[in-house]
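stage 2 :: seqdesign
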């Protein structure tokens, strides 16, 4: 299938970076923004002054506030809205989808209430034909570094390997390497839960703990993510790849990580309300913590780090008590 036009739904950091990438490949690309001022400035100045402010965007990139204008006639539609609004936004966009359009999800998270990953949400709101032509982009990728064309490797997941390959070709460049997998569950769980562990990594950093602590947290966090993913039907090796450990390392250690920044502020003693009030971008890990905790309970999966971050965010547990609770747990085999 020839990519005649790409529509990217969501003009935050990641949506803007992906739209800029495909526009830079010479693919006609339209970026949909909920915020009129964002669309106007992209059209007029080739910049997104709310997100990726320092990046000059490809002049061929178009922007609009009309979902119909963005989606109608597009052969590829990228869902890049925050996960908690994907159902609403893509449900409306579905009315304008071409019957054979490929849908690529670039959102990471678990829907509150339903506890569905984005594949479950999209399967309910998209027409059946489009739902069968979906792929899921995941892996270690800060939007700013992609916009700066720094070497990046990611995963494209689809139950149908032909769809994964089709989606791979849309984004593949000499600086953006795309691997494929059929393990959608593994890619989605890894992409969502790494944000929870990133909050935890920020907490221990903000409290002044060292590299020993952070290394242990990331490693045990990966074990928790893998346990839940396998319980949901994922292949464990997926979590040893880009969509698992790769994304986890980036988000837990990188200075551009919003979720890690939330954790740092918590570890330094600020309240969650104060932190959220000062943010202009969404930290997916806050909502995902609640959903991940509920999923773990539902499936009987032991996730002590997720449980302690849930207690810290929503039950008033002080950060030091959360860390101490993890350290005094009953000793057990590493793979137990």
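stage 2 :: out
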């Amino acid at each position: 299938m020839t990519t005649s036009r790409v529509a990217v739904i969501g003009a935050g950091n990641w949506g803007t970076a992906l739209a800029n990438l495909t526009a830079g490949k010479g693919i006609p690309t339209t970026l949909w923004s909920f915020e009129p001022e964002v669309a106007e400035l992209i059209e007029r100045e080739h910049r997104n002054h709310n997100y990726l402010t320092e990046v000059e965007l490809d002049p061929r990139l178009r922007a609009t506030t009309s979902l119909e204008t963005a989606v109608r006639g597009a052969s590829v539609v990228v869902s890049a809205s925050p996960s908690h609004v994907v159902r609403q936004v893509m449900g409306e966009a579905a009315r304008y989808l071409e019957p054979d359009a490929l849908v690529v999800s670039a959102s990471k998270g678990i829907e509150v209430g339903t506890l569905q990953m984005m594949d479950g949400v999209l399967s309910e709101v998209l027409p059946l034909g489009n739902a069968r032509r979906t792929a899921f982009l995941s892996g270690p990728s800060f939007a700013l570094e992609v916009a700066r064309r720094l070497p990046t490797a990611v995963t494209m997941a689809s139950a149908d390997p032909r769809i994964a390959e089709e989606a791979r070709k849309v984004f593949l460049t000499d600086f953006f390497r795309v691997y494929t997998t059929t393990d959608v569950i593994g890619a989605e769980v890894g992409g969502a839960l790494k944000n929870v562990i990133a909050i935890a990594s920020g907490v221990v950093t903000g409290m002044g703990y060292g590299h020993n602590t952070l290394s242990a947290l990331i490693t045990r966090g990966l074990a928790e993510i893998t346990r839940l993913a396998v319980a949901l039907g994922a292949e464990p090796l997926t979590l040893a790849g880009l969509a698992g450990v790769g994304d986890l390392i980036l988000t837990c250690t990188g200075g551009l990580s919003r979720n890690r920044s939330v954790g740092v502020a918590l570890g330094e003693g600020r309240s969650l309300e104060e932190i959220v009030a000062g943010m202009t971008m969404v930290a997916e890990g806050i909502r995902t913590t609640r959903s991940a905790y509920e999923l773990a309970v539902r499936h009987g999966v032991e996730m002590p780090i997720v449980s302690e971050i849930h207690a810290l965010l929503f039950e008033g547990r002080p950060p030091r008590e959360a860390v101490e609770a993890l350290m005094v747990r009953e000793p057990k085999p590493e793979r137990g």
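stage 3 :: structure notes
- The chain has two domains: 6-182, 185-327.
- The chain has a mean pLDDT of 95.
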